[in-house]
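pasting for the record
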Amino acid sequence: MNAKTLAIPAFSLRHFHVWRRNSLVWRKLAIPSMLGNLADPMLYMLGLGYGLGAMPSDVGGMSYIAFLAAGTVCSSTMMSASFEAMYSGFSRMHVQKTWDAIMNAPVTLDDVVLGEAVWAASKSLLSGMAVLLVAWALGLTQSALALWVIPVVFLTGLAFAGMGLIITALSPSYDFFMYYFTLAITPMMLVCGVFFPVSQLPAPLQAVTQVLPLTHAVDVVRPLMNGAAPADLLPHLAVLAAYAAAGIYTALVLMRRRLLN
């Protein structure tokens, strides 16, 4: 890679126009999109929460459905950001050539990539908040501390948007995304504390989960939704921010190599 490809990003407020363009298109199908994003997490939360939740008395000092609700907020955020950054992002970049059209205006690739990442995080925020509202309606969270989940969910979405854009930059087709979901997203959802405490895993696997972003998101969101201050809050947020920054920069470098060279 040459120096231009690895150059420090030159982001500007013009990325907002990319975000706004995507939001205007999304509004035309907002209701079915939200229902689709909400269906899977709701099935997990209600099906497992009330079904499997009738078996254990409590998990970590809370009912199983309350335990699961917090994990579902994070997993829904992860899935929504990943789908938007990959499937929709790939369509705009490669299939529809929307990015090429945008860059004919005074908008750089740097701003397009940042706009895509922020848009994916914004859309994932809606998914996470939808699950949070359902949890509140069911009486699973009543603390005002749960409001602090909102910025954490956005940061989580930004972290997974950056990772998704990396896969988009490398992918030759839509089929390539299944490898990422099978080898990364699904294992994270299973071992990062969404369905059961990480402490139940073997010690070596627990160590692995500590470097995965979903674990840190769950470790912050779950206490907040249950009226407690998260332990080690700043390190958790720092890991999520590092994933977001590294992911967006790496995606930008790969996009420059793919689209500009």
